[in-house]
Amino acid sequence: MDATSEAKVMSSVLPKVLGDTTIPSGENLLFGNLYPLTKGIRRAKPGLYHGIRPELLDRQLREKLSSFIIPSTQPRAPILPTFFAEVKGPDGSVIVAQRQACYEGVLGARGFRELELYEQSQEAVSNDSAASVIVATYAEGVLRLYTIHATPYDQYKMTLLQGFFMSNSRNAFVEGARAIRNARDWTMQRREKAVANANQRLQAAIVQSNDTMDRDDSDESIISKVLQSFTTSLYWWGS
User: What pLDDT is stored for residue 86 in this prediction?
Assistant: First the structure.
């Protein structure tokens, strides 16, 4: 599990930990399309993130929530990122990795929250929606997993789940690899469920809007017929 640089960790160590997956991902992609958390802050550039294919989310939702859920202007880049990994080489700082992961995780949690709140009230969003993002750091041979929790006051909290000394033993490596893979798959399931629900709410809103328009057209037709009848009556009495 030894690696001489951050790039080496990304290319040789992390793939062994994460294993093979078909989940859409991006590496070292600048999050230049997201609305910044605050003025003057640098754009995030995760070492690794997982999201969903853009076409799975309705185009209207992608356009409406673009600055919260579409991290890059690259058309095929995954959107709605909710799993992140940051690694450091032997000379890297654990604190820096943690801060980077926290920043990226907050961006992901904010986007997930915006999607869940579409066509829903704050009260309607389930309590467990706060635990929507997992971030992982690997530094000095230790794998750490965190959740990013959204609070009701639009604040975010980073909580350590588990830590694994990956280079201590084979068992430690296996346990750490299993944990991060399960966490990655769990975020995928959360994303897919949130996207499916948002698409359904959008379609329901469209149907409701069309029904309202049809009723309005019907009301206008009735009023038009009444006015026409009234005008005809006036003409008859006048004659």
Answer: 94
Q: Edge-to-edge strand order for the sheet containing 25-26?
A: 25-26, 48-52, 79-87, 133-139, 142-150, 156-165
Q: What pTM was estimated for this model as a whole?
A: 0.82
Q: Which amino acid is at 202?
A: L
* CB contact at 8 A, 62 and 54: yes
Place of tokens 């990226």: 104
Interatomic CA distance for residues 47 and 101, integer angstroms? 9
Do residues 148 and 169 touch, judged by C-beta distance below 8 A? no
DSSP character string of 147-186: EEEE-TTS-EEEEEEEEEETTT-HHHHHHHHHHHHHHHHH
pLDDT in tens, 49-81: 999 999 999 999 999 999 999 999 998 999 999
- What DSSP state is assigned to residue 123? G
Query: How far lies 22's CA from each of 59, 100, 217, in Å?
Result: 23, 25, 49
